[in-house]
Amino acid sequence: MTQPTRTFRNDKLRSLAAKKGIEPVSALTAYDYAVARILDEAGVDIILVGDSLGMMVFGHKDTTQVTVNMMTHHVKACRDATTRSLLVADLPYQSYQDEKQSLETARELVKAGAEAVKLEGGKAVAPQIKTILSANIPVFGHIGMLPQQVKQEGGYKKKGKTDIEAEALVEDARQLDKAGVSAIILENIVSSLAKEITRITNAPTIGIGSGKDCDGQILVINDLLGSYPWFRPPFAEPKADVASETTKAVKQFVAELSNPTRS
Ligand code: KIV
């Protein structure tokens, strides 16, 4: 049976907008029911089914192999766990190359259960953003380091170091704001510039690796939990060591099987 399309919860979007400059916005990624439910019950404002699932769930090197089907599968896994938090989903690589395609992809994600979609880029994707918004689908912007462009960029680099780059980012943020996005992710941007973008935009900014002066912060859940020990971004301070705890529990389980009398 097809799941009904989720009705938009404008109260969640209103409370997100109301936090600008007043209360920090919290955002974390989730890719499955259990994690999404824990985040929702813990009171996180935004749950992002990020295309970082390419790396965190599938072990890919970057996000460029993630497809719309992979995204809808994980949005469906998170939808029933999400009541209080706003469920946002990424439009994956090359799924929003023009207005028509971007609207089709956004509709697929909404049908799967997303309450808003996010896409990477500034003024270059403004037409796509306006088209999705005109279909009443809330949109999050994402500027700075764009993980879907990592191959073209030659790595994960800090953005906004030169005047030209900083001016372009300010212009991108203005265009997204003018288009009417619900929030703007600022990834790996020089912190003084992230602060300035936060000052000039109406939409809340949500930083990742962009300093403390954004309206909120987002992290990949595995980086917060220490559950992906093979790579840890320098800006993410893990608050748990789930990888070590898991190894310990598994070793104990295996040892107790070989020596049941000692358990
Ligand atoms: O895919 C993702 O996880 C993101 C981030 C902003 C964390 O886009």
What attributes does this structure have?
single chain; 263 residues; alpha/beta; TIM Barrel; 8-stranded parallel barrel; 11 helices; binds 3-methyl-2-oxobutanoic acid
Tell me what you see in this structure.
There is one protein chain. The chain is α/β, with parallel strands linked by helices. Helix content is 42%, strand content 14%. It contains eleven helices and eight strands. The protein has helices at residues 10-18, 33-42, 53-56, 68-79, 99-112, 126-134, 150-153, 163-179, 191-200, 221-225, 242-258; strands at residues 25-29, 46-49, 86-90, 116-118, 139-144, 183-187, 205-208, 216-219. Strand 6 (183-187), helix 9 (191-200) and strand 7 form a beta-alpha-beta unit. The model has no long low-confidence stretch (mean pLDDT 95). Bound molecules: 3-methyl-2-oxobutanoic acid.
Break the fold down into its secondary structure elements and pairings.
Elements: H1 10-18, E1 25-29, H2 33-42, E2 46-49, H3 53-56, H4 68-79, E3 86-90, H5 99-112, E4 116-118, H6 126-134, E5 139-144, H7 150-153, H8 163-179, E6 183-187, H9 191-200, E7 205-208, E8 216-219, H10 221-225, H11 242-258
Parallel strand pairs: 1-2, 1-8, 2-3, 3-4, 4-5, 5-6, 6-7, 7-8
Bound molecules: 3-methyl-2-oxobutanoic acid (KIV).
Instruction: Count structural domains.
Output: 1
Percent range for β-strand residues: 5-15%
Q: Say how many strands there are.
A: 8
- In the CATH hierarchy, the architecture is Alpha-Beta Barrel
Structural class: alpha/beta
Largest sheet: 8 strands, parallel, barrel
Mean pLDDT: 95
**Total helical elements:** 11
Order of helices and strands: HEHEHHEHEHEHHEHEEHH
- Radius of gyration (CA) equals 19 Å
* Biggest β-sheet: strands ordered side by side in the sheet: 1-2-3-4-5-6-7-8
> Low-confidence segments, ≥5 residues, pLDDT <50?
none
CATH fold-level assignment: TIM Barrel
**CATH homologous superfamily caption:** Phosphoenolpyruvate-binding domains
CATH top-level class: Alpha Beta
**N/C terminus separation:** 46 Å
The helix fraction, in percent, is 40-55%
Q: What is bound: which ligands?
A: 3-methyl-2-oxobutanoic acid
